[in-house]
Amino acid sequence: MGYSRQYYYKLEKEEVSKLSDTAAIVAAVQCQRKLLPRLGTRKLHYMIYRSGESCFKCGRDKLFDILRSNNMLITPKRRYVQTTNSKHWMHKYPNIAKDMVIETPEQLWVSDITYIKTLQGNCYLNLITDAYSRKIVGYAIQDNMEAESMIKAYKKAIAGREHKQIQTIHHSDRGLQYCSKEYVSLSVNNGFRISMTENGDPYENALAERMNRTLKEEFGLGEILKTKEIAYKMVEEAVFLYNNLRPHCSLNYQTPQQVHKKIPDKFLLYQGTN
């Protein structure tokens, strides 16, 4: 064949080594996905590299190839059910968050409602997310869409504020719950400004919509769960893992909790001059 015996054995050894490295990388991925089972490939690459896994000797594109060949790539699930009723008589507020430059945690909170299916019927999850840190600062899950559940999430967010010197804007869609007297009073009594989407455009509340999708796709909340009690427990676990363990690409692969606890120095200096 025109090849020496030494060259043949060299190729054989390299192939065995390659298979061994691939198996080690797959094992490392499986280890990282024990707590975050639907973690994406870019975040996996960062987390394995950061953890100092000795087996990790490939770049991001090669990791994509390995996961693809092992049927381990995460495919997004496209689902959409409208949960907003904006056709009501109550006062609606203008969108003051549009084109806003977010410079610090707790400058802008976005809120939205999504559904979770169970064999006992639907549950409804209200999330309040900090636009700067991407941290879920408040949440509540109930088997109805009444304003009481939304207020519970809002109160949780307010009680956990870490930067009370920052004036917060609360942004949401124009749903009945967010326009209710009780919900609006919470904003007014705490010195928050109110912002709402206009013309029913979902892109005006894109971050909140994306948060719903992330929890459903990566933490199993998009599946049909057995009971409502399981849904409640899974939401609590998902929020904790998302805030404290899941690295975020837009946060330079930090977790939301790491980013949320600190106000940028340039913002403090800016405040001091005004």
Automatic annotation (TrEMBL):
Residues 101-264 form the Integrase catalytic domain. It comes from the Bacteria. PANTHER family: INTEGRASE PROTEIN, TRANSPOSASE INSF FOR INSERTION SEQUENCE IS3B-RELATED. This is IS3 family transposase. It comes from Polluticaenibacter yanchengensis. The lineage of its organism: Bacteria, Pseudomonadati, Bacteroidota, Chitinophagia, Chitinophagales.
